Amino acid sequence: MNPKIAIIARVGAHKALAAAGLQPHHTEVYSTPYGDSRPVHWFRQGEIDFVVLSRHGEAGYEISAPFINARANLYALKALGVSKILAWVAPGSLRQEMAPGDLVAPHDVLDEGKGGPHTFYAGVGWGFIRHHPLFCPELRAAMLGALVDVPFTVHDRAVYVATTGPRLETAAEIRKFGLLGGDLVGQTLAPEVFLARELELCYTALTYVVNYAEGLLDRPYAPGVLFEGLATPAEIERVRAVEAAWPELIIRLLPALAGTSRRCPCPRLMERYRLRGDINDDWRTWVR
Ligand code: HPA
Question: Would you list the DSSP string of 152-205?
Answer without folding.
Answer: S-EE---EEEE---SSPPPHHHHHHHHHTT--EEESSHHHHHHHHHHTT-EEEE
